[in-house]
Specification:
Blueprint lengths: L1 E6 L5 H10 L5 E4 L2 E6 L1 H10 L5 E10 L3 H9 L12 E9 L6 H20 L4 E2 L6 E8 L2 E7 L21 H10 L8 E3 L6 H10 L21 H11 L11 E5 L2 H13 L6 E5 L14 E4 L9 H19 L4 E6 L2 H4 L8 E7 L2 E9 L9
Parallel strand pairs: 5-6, 5-7, 9-10, 9-12, 10-11, 12-13
Antiparallel strand pairs: 1-3, 1-4, 2-3, 4-8, 7-8, 13-15, 14-15
Bound molecules: S-adenosylmethionine.
Length: 382
Amino acid sequence: MSRIIISCAPRISPYVLQELETLGYRGRTLNKLGVEMEGTMQDAMKLNLHLRCASKVLLEVRSFSATDPDALYAELSSIAWERMIPSNGYLRIESFVKNDTILDTRFANLKAKDAIVDRIQKTKGRRPDSGPSVDRTVLFLHWVENDAGIYINTSGDTIGKHGYRKVPFRAPMMESLAAATLLASRWDKNSHFINPMCGSGTLAIEAALLACHIAPGSFRTNYGFIHLRSYDERLWKKLLNEAKNKVPEDLEFRIIATDRDPRAIEAAKMNAEQAGVKHLIDFKVCDFRDTFIPRSNPGVIFFNPEYGERLGEEKRLEGIYKSIGDFFKQHCKGYTGYIFTGNLDLAKHVGLKAKRRIEFFNAKIDARLLEYEIYSGSKKRI
Ligand SMILES: C[S@@+](CC[C@H](N)C(=O)[O-])C[C@H]1O[C@@H](n2cnc3c(N)ncnc32)[C@H](O)[C@@H]1O
């Protein structure tokens, strides 16, 4: 068993913990950027395949004490890297460093890289290449004061991108963030999911993947662990097979995605096709006010409107946010409404009191998922 650290975007760790529990693992919050657990390389492979909200899965090789770059070099040279990294391979070092002897993180990365490739040169007579590419072997160095740890980044490139979105459209949500907002919502995966202003379709596609238990990692072909000498291809194929879920012909509820821009719907359809769920989503080009809202089995109606980062846009958007509130009140009775926005001033124009205000970040923007209970009549809820 080794220590596994699962990194994620800020404010998403509660949802990663929730996912770990669903997968039968026990995790702990490490800090605002991640959770930790104990596990093996097989567990790391499984996590890469199944986690919807995470960014990277790091498997610890060793933790140690290092006061300065020479100590770091000495410690890393004593690890049998030749057993992990092919001598004709390629290596990238990523790091988080806060040590008084290091003024530039790149120097720590260089020192770590030298220790590893020198060791492989000494034992194998050949040194692997190194550089910035994220698509081969990736190691992560964590070094704060005198505490250091070196990890295999088993993901390589972030698993926050789920690999099906080939056509982004204006301000798309990161797939891992979209998945986290769905887990934060009260959607039961059994009632309608309505997504007006769907843009490139991320929320509707993530909803379909979630409802059909489709592993988000099944669309990707490259991971960091594939480039290790110990890579067990048969095991990976077995995990992929176990994760393969037959996508149903249809659902007992509806997923509806609309946008007034035909290019958005075109992009959303292509992305849904890539994800294998196009047949499960009803797409339509229309203004959000013309979105069809089924009356029976009300579920969730989820908006991610623009939030006006450019000057002068805010006035126009105030009207849009007010119309969303009116649309909730007039047409979405019995549903739970959500608005994901990075502009809390605009949210005030919705004209409904949010029942929950769940904190997120969208990239660096402080954002909220606002939840509205939409009652039928004045008080009673259907
Ligand atoms: C921030 S983007 C949504 C991004 C989406 N969540 C994604 O991940 O791709 C907002 C979308 O709202 C659409 N939109 C703006 N005003 C609209 C309106 N009145 N009716 C319908 N769609 C509208 C835009 O075309 C744009 O695609």
